Amino acid sequence: MSTLFPDMSIQQFQFFVREVYEIPNNRHFDIGEMLNQIQRFGMRGIKGIRKKDIEKIKKNLIISFSFFMSILNRLNIDIGEEIWKRFPYLCSYCNSCPCSCKEKKSVFRQVVYVDESKRPQTLSGFQKMFNEIYPASSRTLEHAGVHLAEETGEFSEAIWAYRSNRTDEEFKGVMFEAADYFSCLVGVFNSLNINFAEEISKFYPHNCHKCGNSPCVCSYEIIKNYES
User: Fold this and answer.
1) 99, 91 in Cβ contact below 8 A?
2) What is the DSSP string of 79-148?
C-alpha cells in the first residue's frame, strides 16, 4: 500500500506518483498528453480562484501536480534537486531573501551562493522557503494564479522545445522551468494559507484517490471524463 503523510519529502511524493501512476500513465499517455492534463486540471484550479471555490482550487491543482510529477518521472528529473539548485533559499534573480527584484530592478539571474545547511527536508519546508523568498502578503491570490498560469505555459514550451530537438541545453530548460512551476504552485497555497503537503496527504490517503489501488487501475475512460 502506498501512503503519504503530511511530513513527506518532495522525493517521497515523486516516488508515490511513480509507484501508483507510472504503469497506467505509460499505457494511456505520451508526454504531450500528460502536458494537456497538467493544463486541464491546472486551469480548473485557476477557475476555482475566480469563483472563490477553495476546494476546487486544492483538488485540481493537486491532480495537475501529480501529472507534472509523472512527466518528471518519465524524464528522470529529481524535482527536489532542481528546486534547490534554482532557489537555494534565495531568489534566483536578485540573490536575496526576501526577493528584492523590484528595488534592485534585476534583469538577469544572479549567480547564487548555496548554503546547504538551509536546505528544506520536507515538502512543507520548501513551501515555507518560498513564502519567505516571495511573501504571500506581497501579492493577491489572483496574482498568484496568473503567475502559475504563466509558468505552466513556460514549462509546456520548454517540454516542446526539448522534444523537438533533444539537446542538453533544452533539457536544462525543462529542469529550470519545472522548478519555476513548483515555486508558483506552492505560491497559490501560500496565498491561501494552506499547507500543500497536508492537502496532498488527505487527497491521497492510500494509493489512487479514485480506484484505491496501487498501481492505479482506472480506465482511460474514467480519466478522460473525470470531473473535479
Assistant:
1) yes
2) HHHHHHHH-SSS-TTT--SS--HHHHT--SPPPPPP-GGG---SHHHHHHHHHHHS-GGGS-HHHHHHHH
For the record, the C-alpha cell of 77 comes out as: 528529473
Confidence of residue 107 (pLDDT cuts 50, 70, 90): low
- How many angstroms separate the Cα of 209 from the Cα of each of 2, 27, 49, 227? 11, 19, 23, 13
Cα 137 → chain centroid: 21
- Segment 130-145, tens digit of pLDDT: 999 999 999 999 999 9
CA-to-CA dists, residue 43 to 10, 60, 71, 77, angstroms? 23, 8, 18, 24
Burial 183-204 (b: 16+ CB within 10 A, else e): bbbbbbbbbbeebbbbbbbeeb
> In the Cβ-directed half-sphere of 183, how many Cα atoms lie within 13 Å?
28
Q: Give the distance between the most distant pair of CA atoms in the chain.
A: 52
